[in-house]
Amino acid sequence: MLNFLVTNDDGIDCQGIHVLASTLSLFGHVRIVCPDSEKSGFSHAITTRRPLTLTHLEDRSTDRIQVYTVNGSPADTVNIAMDVFYQEQKPDFVVTGINAGVNAGQDIYYSGTVAAARQAVLHGVPAIATSLERQPDGSLAYQEIIPDLKRVLKVLLAKVFPDNTLINLNFPAYKPTRQETPVPVEVLPIELDARKFSYHEDLDYDGQKVYYLSSHYRTVSVKEGTDIDRLRKGSITVSPLLVKQNNEALLNKVQQWFNDESVY
């Protein structure tokens, strides 16, 4: 049986993490260690200037799923779990999500769900970040994705991931009633050039200018064959991502810049 650590950035009360944990429990034992409240958009932030509390929610735990919360960021939850529970034996996988909304394109740099998976890889643990696209009305069909979630996890959990790699897994918006044909699964690169967000100006009650973040996920122009492109067309997208980002190929070139004595 496999051992899973599960976290998210939407917090303990998000339905997605419980759907994910329940599905993973079919493959092994699950320990949820997640934020005690919503931490969306926290990226890879960690808490440095106050102590953190790890709370065991016994009333929400079962034999197969133990539930804990941390009053910190998604990356904090992975770090604490690794120090408290996995000193002697690491989990087989860290799986994060299911995020309330896609983490596609440049979202991978903002998302706490993806960052928690990234932190797991830094601990030497294979990681999968999972996210679900919202319907145009904002709803999330968590229950409807379960058959396809099982189908995709069955493949991924049977594999040995390369070092320094996480899998970013996005599910398209599902209708409340599932169609008969299986949803296609496509392995694709991330769309990293399209800017999904911008700010629009308004006035607050005091007449002060304020700026609200707007998403252009459904309308921004994207390259064909990327994650956003295929999500819009109804595919499940699987994108392998590198975590450690040293640019070894440029080391010598940049060193040459500093070999010129005129810079000193």
Automatic annotation (TrEMBL):
Gene3D superfamilies given in the database record: Survival protein SurE-like phosphatase/nucleotidase (3.40.1210.10)
Keywords of this entry: Cytoplasm, Hydrolase, Metal-binding, Nucleotide-binding
SUPFAM superfamilies, per database record: SurE-like
Signal sequence range: none
Top-level taxon of origin: Bacteria
Domain Survival protein SurE-like phosphatase/nucleotidase: 5-177
Localisation per UniProt entry: Cytoplasm
InterPro entries to which the protein is assigned, alphabetical: SurE, SurE-like_Pase/nucleotidase, SurE-like_sf
Cofactor: how and how many bound: Binds 1 divalent metal cation per subunit.
Chain sites annotated for binding a divalent metal cation: 9-10, 40, 99
EC number: 3.1.3.5
Record carries keyword Nucleotide-binding: yes
MF terms in GO: 5'-nucleotidase activity; metal ion binding; nucleotide binding
Coiled coil: none
GO CC terms, sorted: cytoplasm
Catalytic activity: a ribonucleoside 5'-phosphate + H2O = a ribonucleoside + phosphate
Cofactor(s) named in the record: a divalent metal cation
UniProt record similarity statement: Belongs to the SurE nucleotidase family.
Function according to Swiss-Prot or TrEMBL: Nucleotidase that shows phosphatase activity on nucleoside 5'-monophosphates.
Name of this protein: 5'-nucleotidase SurE
Gene name tied to this protein: surE
